[in-house]
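Methods — Computational structure assignment.
A single polypeptide chain was analysed. Its primary sequence is given first, followed by the predicted tertiary structure written as structure tokens.
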Amino acid sequence: MGYAEALAVQREAHSATLAGRAARVPMPILLVEHDPPVITISRRAGVAANLLADAATLARLGVEVAETDRGGDITYHGPGQLVAYPIIDLERLRIGIHEYLRRLEEAVIGTLDAFGVAGRRDPGATGVWVGGEAAGERDGHAGGRKICAMGVRVGRWVTMHGLALNVAPDLTHFGLIVPCGLAGRPVTSLAAELGGRAPTMDAVREELGRRLSAGLAR
């Protein structure tokens, strides 16, 4: 699904969740791959400078650019990447934004573990990482390799946007940007980490969906 279409679905779900707050309507978790690929840029000052590619390069590769109202910096979405948009009423869950983000990370770390990849948090950067000092700095970066980016928006305590887990995207497209504004931090995927042992998108979608549902309902 294209980014603009998915954003419209999110907004509709956000409105429905707010309207159904008193009736405690079910809260959806939307799972999607974005095609055509897209670079999303938040409204924070200076973020546009992290777009490295010119318009001609983006057009040749078929990569769109879209402004987004989520938090965070700049990121890439495309085929082979599983994007989760939980539309969650934090007021009903009685949790704050910090706890919500930690639960998202926890669901991703559990999903990675189910497929034999050790994911971890980085105290200085939201998201999920693999490798780093504890793994012997295979790539020369003590901070490890980013496998899942996160960025959310909360309106009247109902969430939008969410996370993007790299299953098997074209990792060269991340060279079009400074991912999440973190210069020098490499990006990876389940396919890059596991090679021929990498799971299918369907398997990852089922595992992550189950863990998000269980973790957010806790």
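Note: The chain is about 30% helix and 25% strand.
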